[in-house]
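step: validate -> pass
step: tokenize input -> pass
step: predict -> running
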Amino acid sequence: MEEDGYSFSQAFIRACDLASVEDLRLHDLRHEATSRLFEKGLNPMQVAAITGHKTLQMLKRYTHLRAEDLAKLLGWHHVNINF
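step: predict -> pass
step: emit ->
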């Protein structure tokens, strides 16, 4: 998509503008995707292979797991977690 000086980043900015989406960066999507891959049950090595993170420390920085999803994994379906 780099043809004629038009980058993916520019396309993302334009799409956000057209959709009236404010305060969203392309980088935010990487954080979101990383967390969702873990929620799908992938292990750290699998997620790192997809996201390109080279260290566990960087992978952890990009991961934001939801308390509700962790509770479900632990079998705490009856617990209502509101933060």
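step: describe -> The two ends are 41 Å apart (CA to CA).
step: cleanup -> pass
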